[in-house]
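Quick one: co-fold with NAP.
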Amino acid sequence: MALIDGNVIDGRAVAQEVRDRVRREVEELVASGGTRPGLATILVGDDPASQVYVRNKHEKSREAGMQSFNHTLPGDTPQDELADLIVELNEDDSVHGILLQLPVPDHIDSDAMIALIDPRKDVDGLTPVNAGLLALGKPGMVPCTPAGCMDLLRAAGTELTGAEAVVIGRSILVGKPMQQLLLAANATVTQCHSRTRDLAEHCRRADVIVAAVGAPKLVKGDWVKEGATVIDVGMNRTDEGLVGDVDFDSARERARAITPVPGGVGQMTIAMLLHNTLEAARRQAGVAAHS
Ligand code: NAP
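Sure, here it is.
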């Protein structure tokens, strides 16, 4: 299957490859006597977008041959009850990955709840232990969206060693881990954010731009260096539908490779969640983890 069409990176095709590989490897693990990997999700409240995300995660995990356990709690669930559930799932041997769907209602301290997740089951890679391991350059659970961006860069054949990379955004979920992954791949990384002076100039010298902002079409075509690779993480619902943080039509004129929205990074997040759940199951079974 072609992973790139002209200069447009086909996130659906790359994600399908990851899901197919995970499904094969799940069966190999089970055939060799291992437990079937199990993913537990926790959804607090009835946010419609979160319900869709959680439903997709279950559908895709079952397609990959995994067990999936869904815990839906009312929006007014006390924090203690949520904490008890996380502790229970930490101790449940059939659960290898635990995902707390964010955002949680305001009365819940999401950082405190995430910190309760056993780092070995933290398939979102958000616990302080896994964030610390990534910062130290040691193996751990890597957050799904930036891990997916790295796979897309590989699929596009982008040389990262020595490359100038600009990451726009510094969130814990995307921007920061992205910066660390690019650094680990020997890129020279500039991290930009809302206080960055002259964002356009930083972008113009970049061989790789990763935009994770949440601002529709912020990155203009004339900010993109000829031959650069552009990864657009943004998902912005606008009157013209779902658009990214990059002005795709003008940027694709100059980029060597670029991800579309939709059909780019969004496809990779669930695929990498499945990858992480499989790795978690392998590690918990004492089977050597894959890269
Ligand atoms: P976030 O937590 O809101 O962080 C946004 C970052 O962008 C912040 O670091 C902010 O800087 C920076 N920023 C805001 N305005 C800026 C500007 N004008 N110039 C430069 N930087 C600016 O968002 P996030 O969770 O990282 O998500 C970013 C985008 O990715 C959103 O559209 C989200 O929906 C999307 N997303 C997609 C996926 C997927 O699966 N495709 C997954 C996760 C997120 P400060 O730190 O200075 O405030």
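If it helps, The chain has a mean pLDDT of 96.
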